[in-house]
Amino acid sequence: MEQEERKPFLEHLEELRQRLIICILAVAVGFVISYFFSEKLFLILIRPLKDALPEGSHLIFTNLPEMFITYLKVSLISGIILATPVIFYEFWKFVAPGLYQNEKRLLVPFVLCSCVLFLGGAIFGYFVVFPFGFKFFLGFSTEYIKALPSVKQYFSFAMKLLIAFGIVFELPVISYFLTKIGIITPQFLKNNRKYAVVIIFALAAIFTPPDVMTQFMMAIPLIVLYEVSILISKIAYAGKRKEEE
Question: Residue 184's pLDDT is what?
């Protein structure tokens, strides 16, 4: 009897292991492909900083393997991005057995929307936040104090912001999913709007540099996304109520 009760749990663990292996393999393939273009990818990544720096300025690296390790990191991040559709797909397939049949049909829209929103958040950070943020920071340079950004520090800073913007732009998809499985409701989101705004500004302070302008540039889109999430939650909630009737 005890073995029969354990069997479903062990089957879930085995399925989870298999899906994690698939995700890791997808990232590995993406990493290998990306490594051949790592230098070009890094040049694209530093373009906003290059445009903001005075003419003739350069990035520096302070230890011998730093540039090589940075290229490896660029390839890994790029590999994860390339593998994102597979990762979202495997996640959905893992949780799908616990959902209704009509919810399973949301597989393709879920994966598509998740990827588009993540990339949209990263693109917003790259094209909007980076140029303004870099100009702000470089504005503190004087005749006697010049910026010498290192490759390692810039990569860490840029990745932190891009990933943060990508994740927070997933809010509408998360809202839809949590509403469908009954964890939240549109009314819950409305009632907690003021707390959400406080949390949003706190997250903006954590994930962005310590200047008010950059924090607002992250917080305002998040507030807009929260309002969109309320609307998405209403649609999901109405659909759920209709199914239950």
Answer: 86
Range of the domain at 100: 1-244
Cβ proximity of 117 and 229 under 8 Å = no
Q: Which string of b and e fits 125-144 if b means at least 16 CB within 10 Å? A: bbeebbeebbeebbeeeeee
Above 90 in pLDDT, residue 37?
yes
- Cα angle vertex 151, ends 146, 157, to 5°? 90
Model pLDDT, residue 174: 86
The two tokens of residue 76 are 């890994």
Q: Taking residues 97-106, what's their average pLDDT?
A: 70
Number of independent structural domains in the chain? 1
Angle at alpha carbon of residue 78, lines to 228 and 120, rounded to 5°: 20
Alpha-carbon gap, residue 152 to 18, rounded angstroms: 34
Least confident window among 15-29, 100-114, 135-149: 100-114
DSSP the chain: -HHHHHHHHHHHHHHHHHHHHHHHHHHHHHHHHHHTTHHHHHHHHHHHHHHHSPTT---B-SSTTHHHHHHHHHHHHHHHHHHHHHHHHHHHHHHGGGS-HHHHTTHHHHHHHHHHHHHHHHHHIIIIIHHHHHHHHHTT--SS-----BHHHHHHHHHHHHHHHHHHTTHHHHHHHHHHTTS--HHHHHHTHHHHHHHHHHHHHHHS-S-HHHHHHHHHHHHHHHHHHHHHHHHHHHHHHHHH-
pTM to 2 decimal places: 0.74
